[in-house]
Each structure stands twice: as structure tokens, then as C-alpha cells.
Amino acid sequence: MTNAFTLPPINQIDDYDPNSLSVDEARRIIHRYLTPITRTEEIAIYDALYRITAEDILAPFAVPDHDNSAMDGYAFHSRELVTPQVSLRVVGSVYAGHPFVGEIHAGEALRIMTGAVIPSSVDTVIMQEAVRREGEQIDFAAQGVRAGQNIRRRGEDISQGSVAVARGSQITPAHMGLIASLGMKSVKVFQPLKVAFFSTGDELTPVGQTLEAGQIYDSNRYSLKGLLSSLNLECRDLGIVRDNPEHLKHVFNEASQWADVIISSGGVSVGDADFVKTLMAELGQVVFWKLAMKPGRPLAYGKIHQSHFFGLPGNPVAVMVTFYQFVQHALRLLSGQVITHRAPQVRYPLAENIKKAPGRMEFQRGIVFQNEQGEWLVKSTGNQSSGVLSSMTQANCFIVLPMECGSLNRGEWVEVELFNGIV
Hints:
alpha+beta; Molybdenum Cofactor Biosythetic Enzyme, Chain A; Molybdopterin biosynthesis moeA protein, domain 3; six-stranded mixed sheet; 7 helices; 26 strands; 29% strand; elongated
């Protein structure tokens, strides 16, 4: 479980209006209550991809721990550069992993390979393509050759004792290689965040069963499973919960005993069978439940006992939009990841007109593409109904339209969030 958290009284939240919170206000309020988990474990570097570091990783030695050659070539002392044309005698070779023993004197050079230790008696490397060699003699022009060139200095990458990987970093393939270069076999990381999720609604039928009149297949749990799996979490799928307050209460109570975060889809609007908000108030606290956004207006956030709770809309597209815009970022922060800013939005001109009414922020599904003239444009996927899930498979971005924005014409520039850049 996460650390216990207490939400302040509603009247202590600045500019609070549960009926019409803006997207930015909702993000700010959620962020206020996100205390990262403290559970940690030690795991092998080999298995650490995308895990979150639980402590600063300090370099036990400098990387590299010696001056070495940046390329194949010839090492010599820069004092040889006093004449326009340099001629030197090659007196030996040095390879990576096999340091040279001896001294290099005036008029001498050393054949050296990439990564080989630079002997103390030389200070410059010239690439092999820049010299002419005959037998044991090399010749090259001094012009353009700089003292100290083509040498990787000790500690150039990481100085000894410095922070090589900061606490709260998500381990990437590059981090794995970097940590291994420090000789470390394991790393301390936060344990995976525990997330329970389910769908609500009497109309839902599990896939594989025959649909009865008025029923639909439950697709939201599959979308959520995919979205959650990409975040390296420990997940429990609690299935379909029927529109029964006692059944829903039981599921909430059971889930809160295990989960750091509970996510539901459906049941958070104002219908007679929408019990989620009422149970939130009974079992925990409601922070907000409606936003000035489209799709995704009925979004609930609060707690069930000591578990964070996100009540997502029931429409399939709205589930994904609200997850991208609110839940994903919150889960990363709760997992211990340090995130200093959201992914930047990029701007593209519209390839066609877009309809929108002022008053709500909209996240329209869009397609960024390149036309025959090589220009990058963005267009809508078409029907923006929150039930048209196929539009999410066609889209590669959200077209972000501010609250005050109205309809836009072809050629006007809009903000775009690329799906692979949303955090």
C-alpha cells in the first residue's frame, strides 16, 4: 500500500468546483496527493529495464578510469608539431586491455587502437587515415593537428563519487549499460505499484460469451490492461462488477486491502445506477468527479480507504483519453519516478477544418502525416464520438484544443500530443 494520505476539506482547495474543473486544475489537485510508494527491492541489472531507481547510484570509480584513445591511429607527444611536416618512427603497438610498458621518446610514435590506455609519455593521437606509413615510419602534416586530440580523458563520462543515475529514474537500456559499466550486478528499485481495475455495468458481457439483447462486450478492461502493462505495474483484473451497490462496495473493500490504486470504468455519471461516487464518499473521499473536457467529462478522483481511486468514464475512447491525460502521469509519480514536466506539445497546421464549441477542453483523435509536398500536417480521424474506439487505432496523436477555442479552419496551427510522447 502507499503511504496513508489525507485529503483536505473541499473548501480548502483553491478555486474548487467539482462540476467544472479545468484539465489543468484537475492535474494540479491530483498531483497534490501523490505520495510515492516506499517499498523497495534489490534486483539484477539484467532484469531492471523500466524499473524505478530507489536511491542515487554513485560511481565507485571514474568512467573511463584512464585516458584512452578515441580511435585507431598513432600516439605521440605534441612537441613533435613544431615543424610543418612531421616524421616519426613507430616503436611499438598498444591494444585495448593491454597497456604499453615503456617510454616514447622524441621522434617516436606508437601504433594505438581504440580504447587502449594512453601512455604517460604521449599526449596526442592522430587517426590512421591522416598519415602515410612506410615500414616503421609515418609522415603527416602538422597543420590541423591539435595537441591532445582524439583522447578520451579519465572521468570524461562520469567522475568518481558522482551521481551516475539519480533516484527516481526509470531505467532505460542506456541506464542498464551505464550501471553495468560501473561493475554493479544489482540495483535497488521501488517495488511495482499495485493497481486493481474493473469495469462496471449490467450491459457488459465478457468476451467469448454470446451477447444477449442490449448487451455489449467489455472492451475497457482490455484497453486498460494494455495501458497498465506498458507501465511495469503489478495489476489485478477484477472483472465486471454489476450495477449493485453492495457488490460494488464489497469489491472496493477487497481491492483497497491490496491495491495502491483502484481504477474503474463506468458508473461515475449521474444515472440512477451510477453508484461509484456515493460509495467513494462512504468509503473514503471524493475530490472531484466532473471536468470541463471532452471526451471524459465524468472523471472521478479521490480515495477508497487509503487507496487512490480513479473512476473513469464508461465510453471506450473516454477511458483511454482520461488515462493518458491523468492516470498515467499519476501512476508514474506514485511508482517513485521523478518527472519534472509533461511531454512537450508540438504544433502542426490543420489539413482540414475542425468543429468545436468553446467551453470545454477537447482532445480530438488526430493523424499527423506528411503530404505529397513533404509538409507535415495533422487531421482529425473523423467521427469524434467517445464510443468510436476504432478512431484510437487510426490515430497517432491527440489534437489539443483549449477551452476558449472554437472551430478552426484548414491551415491554422494546433497543439498536438503524440501518443508515444505522452507521460
